[in-house]
Amino acid sequence: MAHYKAADSKHEQFRRYLEKSGVLDMLTKVLVTLYEEPEKPTSSLDFLKHHLGAATPENPETELLRLELAEMKEKYEVTIEENKKLKAKLAQYEPPQEKRAE
Question: Is the same domain home to 2 and 40?
Fold first, then answer.
């Protein structure tokens, strides 16, 4: 009997933890959204993952990484264009391939 109470106590503590941290509310909201969907998705697990992922607050570090990625993509495109121009310019001064082999 004591073992039953200990397990019950742990479950109750865990339930309170989930409730206090907002997990139960979030799960309830997502499940209600799924329930109210007129056309049920083929994968309910993917639905939950998508909606739970969208509901989490944005980490400031994630936003900084997104900005850095956008900046790096822009620099990459500029570098690619510059590389093309330099290759074309270099091709003007290099002899054709056949003549170099002689």
Answer: yes
| 49 within 8 A of 27, measured Cβ to Cβ | no
What is the token pair recorded at 64?
Answer: 């900084």
Give pTM, 2 decimals. Answer: 0.45
Structurally, how many domains does the chain consist of? 2
Specify the amino acid at residue 45: L
Each residue's pLDDT expressed in tens, for the chain with a length of 102 residues: 556 666 788 999 999 999 999 889 989 999 999 999 999 999 988 898 888 876 556 678 888 888 999 999 999 999 999 999 999 999 998 877 765 555
In the chain, the amino acid numbered 72 is M
* DSSP letter assigned to residue 102: -
Contacts of 55 (CB under 8 A, 6+ apart): 26, 29, 30
57: left (phi over 0), alpha (psi -120 to 50) or beta: beta
